[in-house]
Q: What sequence folds into this?
């Protein structure tokens, strides 16, 4: 138990300074991750899930963003205290990331082979030839047909699913201990999505990496995660293992999200439950619960005092009504 | 469900009309691709390659498929935003496939479109009231006061009462999509082509728009062609569903029936990868191997055969015909 914890995020706060405004994109987010475990980070656009991920891997653009508090402990070391050079050594080797859009994440003027072997040579002391052999192995691992041919191709010659496989190959080239996948299948078709998710699951088991899976799609999360953090407006509103989240969701927002998606077993004519209103801007709600404007059961307390993350049964929930 | 036989025109209360608002016969849309430096080549992307379907009055037909299968092209060709290469588009009893621009104007009073991206479909410099006003004026509503009244009514219908003086940037994505829907409804259409109307929206907002579309359909007796890649959504909203693959409809059936007994191997694979929330992990998925072939040179015989588990020699030689295997359940596969 003791040595198992690979990542610990404590009270992370990130502000964006835009013109004269200060926007708290991430506000007091904490979670931890053990070896071989998958954390699902769910939420809608602007809830701070990608900003959290970028803070961990040290790719936040500063300015406008600024990490104002908290610590990110990776194997006991605070990543926020490291300088750019030290982060570069960690990134791609110990922690790597898969992005949503595989087209914009690959360099269009280099071949696939060059881009993968660059990562390998950067972090491991291998000759060009050895790196190339490793590259082909990686492409085989992510099940790309004819890897010897693909290494000489350019990104535009591959389909979206193939490009995402290349991204995964790059991310896994150095056996990272932590893999962050930011909406890795959102831009892909459902049948390709299934291929990619299966691949990530399989590689995770094989390499014993910890994974942070970011998605707005609860179905994807339920498929792949061990535990889930639901984010809303910069905060974690519910945090529990995957079974509790889907079988006994506690927070009204989690419940709403689950009910807003039509289920395949749903009766014809059954009305979809909607969450009323719109997602507020992160700086819009100054006091009380962040979800109060859209919550059906918001009471007097919810208007003035923000609830802490309370333990309710097996879940951690940020809601006065569940306390 | 749609009513068989004849349906009275609800608005005029007069002549009984045919039960079908739209019938598409052998529709083809090919795009030429340049193969040589000089002029157009002889190769074509066969985006839509001979499809047949119909929509009844008051019915929602779902059209699903993955990117590049031709579902959006189908929607656009039906609307005549693209000229069909071949085939008939029979809308309210008239073949509109070769209508002129002028003739199409009357068609557009009855057929409208809602696009995927509500950010790109509204003019940022126009107040939303004016955007709707323009549509009304173009379609011949002369009286200004009457138009104003109609705009109020329309915005009220989509839950945006009193917002006519705002600009698009003042609205969120979901609200913009409401504006787009209000504008589509302005001319009192009977058929609306919805091309991925909620894909660009957040999950919690999607449900709002879907509920709105269903309410409006029930209230105004509309019909929809609902194009989407989201199977759960299509199942939920549609009466019947057509599954497209590489320019062809491979299966068409009532929604419940399709999801209970998918017959085409491609539909089976598609449905197997739809994750049921909270279900046990590792439920049996059919993972398709390989990639969608190029629509420039589709495989001979059945187009799905290169990825099909059941493919035989026959599949590469002859193209399967459409067979009826149950009540309104059509499939084009040699297995049946």
A:
């Amino acid at each position: 138990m003791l040595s198992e914890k690979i990542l610990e995020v404590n009270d992370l706060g990130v502000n964006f300074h835009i013109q004269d405004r200060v926007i708290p994109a991430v506000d007091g987010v904490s979670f931890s991750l053990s070896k071989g475990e998958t954390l699902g980070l769910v939420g809608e656009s602007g809830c701070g899930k990608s900003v959290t991920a970028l803070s961990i891997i040290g790719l936040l653009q500063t300015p406008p963003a600024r990490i104002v508090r908290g610590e990110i402990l990776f194997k006991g070391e605070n990543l926020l205290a490291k300088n750019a050079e030290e982060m570069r050594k960690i990134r791609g080797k110990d922690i790597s990331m898969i992005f949503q859009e595989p087209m914009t994440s690959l360099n269009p003027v280099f071949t696939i082979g060059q881009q993968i072997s660059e990562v390998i040579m950067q972090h491991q002391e291998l000759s060009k030839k050895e790196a190339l052999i490793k590259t082909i192995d990686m492409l085989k691992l992510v099940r790309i047909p004819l890897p010897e041919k693909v290494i000489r191709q350019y990104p535009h010659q591959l389909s979206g699913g193939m490009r995402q496989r290349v991204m995964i190959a790059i991310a896994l080239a150095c056996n990272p201990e932590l893999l962050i996948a930011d909406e890795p299948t959102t831009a892909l078709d459902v049948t390709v999505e299934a291929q990619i998710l299966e691949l990530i699951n399989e590689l995770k088991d094989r390499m014993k990496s910890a994974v942070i899976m970011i998605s707005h799609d609860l179905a994807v999360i339920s498929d792949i995660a061990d535990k889930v953090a639901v984010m809303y407006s910069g905060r974690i509103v519910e945090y529990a293992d995957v079974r509790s989240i889907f079988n006994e969701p506690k927070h009204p927002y989690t419940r709403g999200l689950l009910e807003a998606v039509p289920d395949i077993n749903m009766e014809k004519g059954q009305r979809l439950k909607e969450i009323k209103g719109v997602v507020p801007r992160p700086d819009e709600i100054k006091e009380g619960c962040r979800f109060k404007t859209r919550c059906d059961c918001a009471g007097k307390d919810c208007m003035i005092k923000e609830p802490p993350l309370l333990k309710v049964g097996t879940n951690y929930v940020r809601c006065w009504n569940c306390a | 469900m749609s009513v068989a036989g004849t349906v009275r025109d609800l608005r005029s209360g007069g002549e009984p009309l045919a039960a079908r608002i739209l019938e598409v016969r052998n529709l083809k849309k090919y795009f030429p691709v340049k193969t040589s430096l000089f002029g157009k080549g002889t190769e074509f992307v066969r985006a839509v390659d001979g499809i047949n379907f119909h929509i009844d009055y008051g019915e929602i037909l779902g059209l699903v498929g993955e990117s590049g299968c031709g579902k959006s092209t189908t929607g656009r060709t039906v609307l005549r935003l693209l000229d069909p290469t071949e085939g008939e588009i029979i809308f309210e009893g008239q073949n509109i496939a070769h209508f002129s621009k002028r003739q199409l104007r009357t068609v557009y009073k009855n057929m409208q479109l809602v696009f995927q991206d509500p950010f790109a479909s509204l003019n940022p410099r126009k107040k939303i009231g004016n955007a709707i006003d323009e549509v009304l004026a173009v379609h011949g509503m002369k009286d200004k006061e009457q138009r104003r009244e109609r705009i109020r009514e329309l915005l009220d219908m989509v839950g945006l009462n009193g917002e006519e003086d705002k600009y698009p940037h003042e609205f969120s994505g979901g609200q913009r999509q409401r504006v787009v829907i209000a504008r589509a409804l302005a001319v009192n259409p009977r058929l609306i082509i919805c091309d991925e109307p909620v894909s660009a929206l957040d999950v919690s907002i999607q449900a709002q728009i879907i509920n709105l579309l269903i309410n409006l359909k029930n209230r105004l007796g509309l019909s929809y062609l609902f194009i989407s890649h989201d199977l759960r959504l299509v199942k939920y909203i549609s009466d019947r569903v057509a599954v497209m693959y590489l320019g062809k409809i491979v299966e068409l059936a009532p929604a419940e029936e399709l999801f209970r007994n998918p017959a085409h191997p491609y539909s089976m694979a598609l449905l197997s990868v739809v994750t049921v929330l909270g279900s046990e992990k590792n439920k049996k998925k059919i993972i398709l191997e390989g990639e969608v072939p190029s629509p420039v040179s589709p495989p001979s015989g059945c187009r799905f055969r290169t990825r099909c588990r059941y493919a035989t020699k026959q599949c590469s030689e002859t193209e399967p015909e459409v067979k009826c295997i149950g009540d309104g359940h059509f499939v084009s596969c040699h297995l049946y």
Observations:
- Chain A has a mean pLDDT of 86.
